[in-house]
Amino acid sequence: MNNTPNSSSPPTCTLPPQAVSNALKITSTGSQTVYVAEHDDIQIGCTFQLEPADKGALDIEWSIMNPDTTQLDRVILTYQHGEQFAYDNPLRGRFQFTETDPSNGNASVRISTLRITDTNTFQCKVKQAPGIDSRKVTVGVHVRPQEPECWTDRSGDRDQDVTLHCVSHRGSSPLTYTWNRVSDSRGLPARSTTDLPGKPPVPFPEFCANRQYPSGRFVASPSRDVGTSHGQGGWTRVSALPPVAVRG
């Protein structure tokens, strides 16, 4: 009989991973969805604060988030080992750090001369082991409304309602139109209506003025969340007047 003790290996002891507290913190605040007019510039904030516990190499990464979560995001700008690296993308040359040295706690960027195709969600990620934090901002680029074209329809009969039309031929939908009387302080006629009910949809707003005030000058202002434009349409209650086209 073999009484030799078993020569098996001593038991091993695996330590649990050390709990890590993300001391690094991005301190930028503000809206995470912003709307900007085409051709304007925008600054996206990404300031951060480091703590003594963060001892690794500083790594800053800006990327365009892929709406398909199964696909990779697109890295467009980084700061690593004291150097900035811009990667090939449609924003190259227009997407830059606002500071020469972003390691001083400011990884904010500026996007210049915005295009409609720049509409995206951007992520700033800052890492310095063991700390890591990130911030996302969605930028929507819209076309600012163009000065509208306005005109007046008259039946030619006295004491008849007059309909004013206005349309802006350029501007990201949907546009909101606001009518105001600008020739004096009386405001719109009390029973005037806009977007006449019971009529099929039209690509421009209509304003039907009643017979309370014989004349006046009105302005229609198309607006979007990136700006407002103005145009003018005038009307008068005089018999036998043909339709008049008034351009803003």
How does this structure look, described?
By secondary structure, this protein is mainly β. The protein has two domains: 25-142, Immunoglobulins (Immunoglobulin-like); 149-247, Immunoglobulin-like (Sandwich). It is 0% helix and 41% strand. It contains no helices and 20 strands. Strand 17 and strand 18 form a beta hairpin. It is elongated. Mean pLDDT is 78; it is low at 233-248.
Quick structural gist:
This protein has 248 residues and is mainly beta.
Topology, element by element:
Elements: E1 25-26, E2 33-37, E3 42-44, E4 48-49, E5 59-64, E6 74-80, E7 83-86, E8 95-97, E9 109-111, E10 120-128, E11 131-142, E12 149-153, E13 162-167, E14 176-181, E15 193-194, E16 206-209, E17 215-224, E18 227-228, E19 231-236, E20 244-247
Parallel strand pairs: 2-11
Antiparallel strand pairs: 1-4, 3-9, 5-6, 5-10, 6-7, 8-9, 10-11, 12-13, 12-20, 13-16, 14-17, 15-16, 17-18, 17-19
Level-2 CATH architecture of the largest domain = Sandwich
Which whole number gives the mean pLDDT? 78
The N- and C-terminal alpha carbons lie at a distance of 111 Å
Annotated CATH topology of the largest domain: Immunoglobulin-like
Strand content: 35-45%
Radius of gyration, in Å, reads 31 Å
How many individual helices?
Answer: 0
CATH class of the largest domain: Mainly Beta
**Shape field:** elongated
Which structural class should the secondary elements be placed in?
Answer: mainly beta
Assembly annotation: single chain
Q: Which sequence of strands runs across the widest sheet?
A: 2-11-10-5-6-7
Helical proportion? under 10%
Element pattern in H and E: EEEEEEEEEEEEEEEEEEEE
